[in-house]
Amino acid sequence: MKDPAFGKPDQQNSHTGRVSHSNAANHDDDTIDFGFRTVQRGEKARLVRGVFDSVANRYDIMNDVMSGGIHRLWKSAMIDWMAPQPHHKLIDLAGGTGDISLRFLRGGGGEALITDINHAMLEAGRGRRDLQKMAHRLRWAVANAETLPFDDHSADFVTIAFGLRNVTDRQAAINEAYRVLKPGGRFLCLEFSHVQSRPLARLYDSWSFNVLPVMGQMIAGDANSYRYLAESIRQFPTKEVLADMFAEAGFAQIRVRSLSAGIACIHSGWKLD
After folding, report:
1. Domains in the chain: how many in total?
2. Residue 216: which residues within 8 A CB-CB, separation 6 or more?
3. If DSSP states are collapsed to H, E and C, what string results for 222-271?
């Protein structure tokens, strides 16, 4: 039995989002990328949780470092594209410290449910004063994006920003987004992408692998976690492959917007029925 996604605001949901037995049986012996490392599929969620346990308290600052502050413009572009209205409800996957939900509410949305597999990230978000002012319109839930503990047809929007690359079974997460959307609902994914310009790509690689880990050590006391984040971007599917994954889940009217010369992309898909 799934839970209603929206109810009493600012309530911590105790579900952790378990992988189904059939999924575990099929994949536990398989391997998958964790940055440039290859690990057992069943280990990736634990390793990702460890990364974000380490960086949770400095995550928002490091987002500015990773993108030179441009992530703020990218997030604003996604919210502008959504054009939320007061009756709209959002489920934000891998919502971490609540930045997307805050922008959704400020942009005119009605209610938001922030989910993340990592409790430390959610606690960092719950401590934000700007979000505390909107507590009556927010809920928080520890949940795995691959197996959401919410009813079908729960939300008008589902979003995931800079989180899908950390998910073990990305197709399962996209399928779950489709399931919990209402008919006529929309899923948007903001994620780092593959730079097309070779000169820019060389500069971007130099920044990612030489500068970012050093900054991670200086600001968050953790170079390895930020090295993983840089590696995970290179392992992420191309925008064309991700669009195909949207289609496989059932989404229609799929659109892709490249941002900042392809450093990031927004994918959008609609659930028509």
Report:
1. 1
2. 55, 62, 65, 222, 223, 225, 226, 227
3. CHHHHHHHHHHHHHCCCHHHHHHHHHHHCCEEEEEEEECCCCEEEEEEEC
Q: How far apart are CA 176 and CA 149, in angstroms?
A: 10
Provide the pLDDT for residue 20: 34
CA–CA gap between residue 244 and residue 257 (Å, rounded): 15
For tokens 């028509």, the residue is 272
Residue 164: give its domain's CATH number. 3.40.50.150
CA 255 – CA 2 distance, rounded (Å): 30
Give, in order, the Cα–Cα distances in Å from 129 to each of 8, 76, 115: 20, 20, 18
Q: Angle 130-182-245 (CA atoms, 0-180°, nearest 5)?
A: 90
Percent of the chain predicted with pLDDT > 70: 91
Per-residue pLDDT at 225: 84
In a domain, 153, yes or no: yes
If one compares 23 and 253, the residue with the highest pLDDT of the two is 253
